[in-house]
Each structure stands twice: as C-alpha cells, then as structure tokens.
Amino acid sequence: MNTGELERRLGDVLRQRAEDAMNSTDTQTRLETLERDLPRNRPRVTIGRVVAAVAVAATVAALVLVNARGDDRTDTPAASVDTQAAIEVASEFVAAVAAYDAGRAASYLAFGAEIRLRTATEGADSMAAQLRWNRAVGWLLLPERCEHATVSAPAPAVTVACTYAVHGLGSQRLGRGPFRGNVLQLTVVDGKIVSGVEHAVPGFEATMWEPFTAWLLTKHADQAAFMYTDWPGATRPALTRRSARLWEQNVDAYVAAVRRGDAS
C-alpha cells in the first residue's frame, strides 16, 4: 500500500469516528445522566469538571471531524491549456495557406469554423477556391511569427495572433511592397481552429487594390461582373474558376500597363 492510499484510509477512519463522536456527544443529555448517577453528597465542583470534560470532548470531536474532512479534500487544478500546441497549429495553418495547400489548411479547421478574410469568409469547404484565387492574383503570404494574443479567448480556447507580409496584384513585379503589419487572429480549441479574423493594414489597398480596380473598370468593365460577387461594388472577388482565369489575365495586363505608364 502506498503512502497516498494509507493516508486516504486513515482519513476515512478518522472522519467516521469523529462523526460517531459528534452523533453520540450531546452535552445536555450527558450532563443530566451524570447528575442522576452521581451521589448526592459529591461536591458540586465535580459536576462542573464533568461538564467541562464533556464540552471538551465535543469540541475535540468537532475538530477531528473538520481536520479529517480537510485532509481528505484535494484541490482540483483548472484544466490545463497547451498554449504552445495552439501556436503550432496556427503556424502550420498559415504555412499551408502560404503554400496554397488547401487540403492541409482545411485539416486544421474545426467543423463549422469560419475565417473572416479581408475579401471573404472562408471555411474548410471553400478553402480550395480561396487559395486558387490567391494563386491567380499572385497573392504571396509571407509568414512572420505566431504568438499568444495579448487578449485571448477564455480557456480552453487559445487565441493566437499570426503576423505576416503580403504581395499581390503584381506588386512584387512592380517593386512595391511587401506590405507588412497584417495579422490573422486564430482561436484554437483542442487542437483545431474554430474561428479567425484577418486585420489588414491599409497600405496594400491604397497602393495596389484601388489602382488596379480603377484601371480594370476603365479598361475591362465587361469582365468585372464575372470577377466580383458584389459587382458593381468591386470589393469581394468571385471564387469561381472563370473568375480566377480573368483575375490572372487582368493582373498581367495591369502590370504591363503600369510599366508602360498607362496605369498607376
């Protein structure tokens, strides 16, 4: 028998005996019994001592019971959260997105997970279409680091902030960027990403997205309707295969126009 088992059994015995003592120790009843049994000529001081003894017995029994219960009680630690494992999951997800590996990226997502990007909200089922569009527009995600977010979701969830730089819409070919300061905030529970939101810096929009859109609407407005789901809003790209082909063609044409001086 190990020490822990011995201590537990001893605690059980002490607790049971203490409870028996408490149940059988009634000061008033014992006093009345003693008064009947004592000879009438016994000095009164003896009864006083007996009363004190009975009271002490009751107190000791109570203390033993409390101590036994206290010793038997163990503090249950809060559920452990593996922050480092969550960071690794987030890092692997970002790496998969950067590599256009839709299957691997989707494997890190929990059922029903949604990732709110700057142009769309994606889940496991739509990851392939999103990464197809990323590749078509030359969207290069350059991972930097992932770390535990300053403000995190309550346990057992862990919120991880992944920073990265990006190229897109031909920015690398034009000598613009990379555009830094972007953050993808991912919430991980039990090794799976349950939600995410992208916080993008405005540099890319002002330098690449807006000039490209202005050029496209001027030169190829007829194609734009197939390239955006919110047309004529021109803020949410369509993720169809046809759209991907049109995006790739027009990004190439835009880069050529900028080099000629026909676009900004």
Automatic annotation (TrEMBL):
Transmembrane segments: 46-66
UniProtKB keywords: Membrane, Transmembrane, Transmembrane helix
Organism domain of life: Bacteria
Protein name per the record: Uncharacterized protein
Organism encoding this protein: Nocardioides agariphilus
